[in-house]
Amino acid sequence: MERITAIILAAGSGKRMNSTVHKQYMVLAGKPMLYYALKAFDESAVTDIVLVTGVDEITYCKREIVDKYNIHKVRTIVEGGRERYHSVYAGLKAAVGSDYVLIHDGARPFVTEDIIARSIETAKACSACVVGMPVKDTIKVVGTDGFAKETPERKKLWQVQTPQSFSYSLIVDAYEKVVALEDDTVTDDAMVLERMTGRQVRVIEGSYRNIKITTPEDLLVAEAYLKDVVKK
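Now predict its structure.
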């Protein structure tokens, strides 16, 4: 049987949230934010979950989230690193033997079973897949002097989300290279693959609700989404 591993990233500090509590552990509708992403993948077609978190939070995550809410597919919880790409690499090393991996931000609680299923299907067909949505606003490229330099054609622009899904051997090779180079300019997994291998990445539609909760304003939106789900 194919081994499909979800790597859930929960090692960020959440500085923009202006809180002493890391954003992935903030409470949404009575449960830690991280619970929702873990539950979605636990109920999906993935076979394993690797949770990447801060070294001081490993015991908390196991006791207060994984065990408390019966997240059965978490095989291991590993320590993250200084930058996001270090944390992803730690997760990839823990997922050795996988055929495919789906890398997901723990601060995106509204990932759905449909998004996960289509990500797996596309990763199998194309080896590299990210979810995203077309941007709604006009985007400006702004110079260091504060003036707009360019206005890209909006219909070609997508805001990229997670999960980002890959053939394991393909993405682990790319991450080994970026870690060796200590390239702190990479911002997502697709960029690592593109920069280190020159491979193209297939983009499929995610959802405008698949937001990453980064600021206090995002929390308000997330609470509204959860209330909407309860009403339905």
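The radius of gyration is 17 Å.
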